[in-house]
Amino acid sequence: MTEETIAPQLYLITPVGAAPETLGPVLAEVMDRFPVACLRIPGAGSEEELGRIADLAREIAHARDVAVVIDDHVELAVRHGLDGVHLTKGPRNLRYVRGELGADAIIGVFCGNSRHEGISAGEGGADYVSFGPVGQSALGQGELAELDLFGWWSEMIEVPVVAEGALTPALVQALFPVADFISIGPEIWSAEDPVKALTELWG
User: Fold this and answer.
1) Which residues pair with 68 in a beta bridge?
2) What is the DSSP string of the chain?
């Protein structure tokens, strides 16, 4: 990012284990109230459950011109018309997945707090790299991705970077100058009013 770059965009993660009939209205409301750049579906659950969520997310997101990716499930992404996948275990399967999905698919790679894995992902053709957690979380190995990592990446690497994991309002503000996307999901879905929670978090 440069000084001319606009503020980071919102990268939204759907809640784990949500029933489509209850998720649909609240997901649509959140996406109507906030401009979302990408919607990601966690990979937990049975194939049948994930398929239902994938169809719901695709319908809501594509109606708003928002891309949808899913954690790791390449075949499911193809079968349900999603835009790509988010690889949660680093870049080692990246070239295979690119071959399966094609050049136009979105492929993101979670790299924990590893510069090496991030660079490998970028060199392997990832569309974005995700680092985290930025706050106290069990995401990945639980080792924090410090703000310095995002600052270095934004200065040295052109591949877009996503910050995720245990976001707080203070962390969101600190990440604004050095992240292309900020990933939010569990931080709001446990709240009684996810729209209000996102408003307080995003500012």
Assistant:
1) 39
2) --TTPPPPEEEEEPPTT--HHHHHHHHHHHHHHS-EEEEEE---S-HHHHHHHHHHHHHHHHTTT-EEEEES-HHHHHHTT-SEEEETT-STTHHHHHHHH-TTSEEEEE-TT-HHHHHHHHHTT-SEEEE--SSS--STTS----HHHHHHHHHH--S-EEE-SS--HHHHHHHTTT-SEEEESHHHHTSS-HHHHHHHHH-
Which of 94, 100, 199, 115 is CA-nearest to residue 161? 115
Report the DSSP beta bridge partners of residue 131: 163
Residue 80: count other Cβ atoms within 10 Å of its Cβ.
20
Residue with tokens 């109507």: 32
| C-alpha to C-alpha distance for 111 and 1, rounded to whole angstroms | 19
Place of tokens 């569990």: 186
pTM score of the predicted model: 0.94
74 is written with which tokens?
A: 């390449």
Token pair 């994938």 is found at 54
pLDDT along the chain (203 residues), means of 10: 68 92 94 97 92 97 98 97 97 95 97 97 97 81 89 96 95 95 95 95 85
pLDDT of residue 136: 82
